[in-house]
Amino acid sequence: MTASLIPNISKFDEVFDAGKSSQYRLTIQFALDGLSYALLDTQSSRLIALECYHSEMLTDSQFLFRTLDQALEQKGLNNKAFLSVTCIYDERINTLIPEPIFNDADKDKYLEFAFQIPDGYAIHSEKMASMPCFNVFAMPNTLKEKVLARWGNATFTHSSTLFINSVTHDPKQEAQVFVNVRNHDFDMVILKEGHLLFFNNFKYDTKEDFAYFLFFAMEQNGLSRQETTVQLSGLILPSSEIIDLCRHYVKNLIFVDDPHVLQVSDALKDVPFQYYYTLYHSLGLETRNQ
């Protein structure tokens, strides 16, 4: 089986030069229906490339990596070294465990309680930067091994870790809702009085499903749809049917703002910022931590 190598999004600044890869930070986001990668030029602190692939054929880790391999080869980046490589794994086998009760030796049990772990997956944990808890998640061994064989300096994180850290680093006292949308599911975070009150993931097939899960979670946590701000990021547009429906019931529905931590190439100006919000946050975090 061979995936179509026609990307959904392919934007490269005119200054992009594969020969300068050693000054680029590469961030890759893997999901079981697609992948995205972005390049940050550290000399200018500017996001200079974004490429995204989506295919129902991308259903296993070997095929995901092969598609990445071919995509990078087309840009002359296949065997290049990068200043850093960060891999974001974007699958919903994860849970948050409060730090006081977390034991790394028990991390398998935390996930096995709620999920059936696929064969060939390993359990990982990472400390959340913005709160006293750990994110425990599963990812395919094969994918990690292939990445490390290519880039020994690669680091790994879960997409929900980035999302939660991005919305909790500067909390407000009033209740806030944050939603990060993918093709058929979304993560939802509720903050109240500066604390994480709620985190969950919901699968949806229709706009009615989306609205139901959003409204139900808000209601169960005592939030008013007329008073609480709901901020959206991810694969969703202001003109979508989901937004049209939700605006009938939620007064303050907004999209994530570009924080301008990094400069973004004009080549990406036609891509809605929320589409690559997670990749952007990962690269911005690396820049702040240099």
Polypeptide structure, described:
- With 290 residues, this protein is of the alpha/beta class.
- It is 25% helix and 32% strand.
- The chain is built from 7 helices and 15 strands.
- The strands form 3 sheets. Strands 1, 2, 3, 4, 5, 9 and 15 form a 7-stranded mixed sheet that branches.
- A hairpin with a 3-residue loop joins strand 10 (176-181) and strand 11.
- Helix 1 runs parallel beside helix 3 (141-150).
- The longest helix is centred in the N-terminal third of the chain and has 14 residues, at 61-74.
- 36% of the residues are buried.
Which helices and strands appear, and what pairs or packs with what?
Layout: E1 9-12, E2 24-31, E3 34-41, E4 46-54, H1 61-74, E5 84-89, E6 94-98, H2 107-112, E7 121-127, E8 133-140, H3 141-150, E9 155-158, H4 159-168, E10 176-181, E11 185-192, E12 195-203, H5 207-220, E13 229-234, H6 241-246, E14 252-255, E15 263-264, H7 277-288
Parallel strand pairs: 2-5, 4-15, 5-9, 10-13, 13-14
Antiparallel strand pairs: 1-4, 2-3, 3-4, 6-8, 7-8, 10-11, 11-12
Helix pairs in contact: 1-3
